[in-house]
Amino acid sequence: MNAEELRRMFQIFDKNDDGHITMNELNDSLENMGIFIPDLLGSLGLKQGGNVEDCRKMINNVDVDGDGRIDFMEFKKMMMRGVGFASFT
Ligand SMILES: [Ca+2]
Ligand SMILES: [Ca+2]
């Protein structure tokens, strides 16, 4: 996955386009994605439909600056870990 693809993916998650993915945005996006690519959620350690607690854990895992949201750098890190993303492009 190249930088442009990452950016595009980030924009899918960042619904209000403010440069941060919040827990609610993550939760919504994962729900939508689970419909099309259920394997993706498994690769990130989530169940289909996810839940708020899962999203919180996911954010905590990559939230370097501890503001409870995911910025682009943190998102990149998360994607590097999510092996299933290869099949998404
Ligand atoms: Ca946002
Ligand atoms: Ca952060």
From TrEMBL:
Transmembrane regions: none
Superkingdom classification of source: Eukaryota
Key word Calcium present: yes
Pfam families (UniProt xref): EF-hand_7
Entry GO MF terms: calcium ion binding
SMART domains, A to Z: EFh
PROSITE patterns xref list: EF_HAND_1 (PS00018), EF_HAND_2 (PS50222)
Gene3D superfamilies: EF-hand
Protein name, UniProt field: EF hand family protein
